[in-house]
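User: Teach me something about this protein's shape.
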Amino acid sequence: MEEKIKKIINDLKPYLNSEGGDVEFIKYEDNYVYIKLTGACLHCAFRDDTIKYGILAQIQEEVPEVKDVITVDL
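Assistant: First, the predicted structure itself:
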């Protein structure tokens, strides 16, 4: 399942990269996906929308067991 989630995130990267941002997979644990946003995504006004309606929606479409996406700052 983790590999499937990583692939989905990698497929979304070009869209974020085109706006100057990026996303990094951190881990999958207890049905939660942990990611790190970088670049322009860090302080974007649409950050929460990107996570909820972009990243989370896409992951849940293929992996419905995922409860949420949590951003972490490392």
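Now, about its shape. Residues 2-17 form the longest helix (16 residues). The first strand starts at residue 21 and ends at 29. If you'd like, I can walk through any region in more detail.
User: That's plenty for now, thanks!
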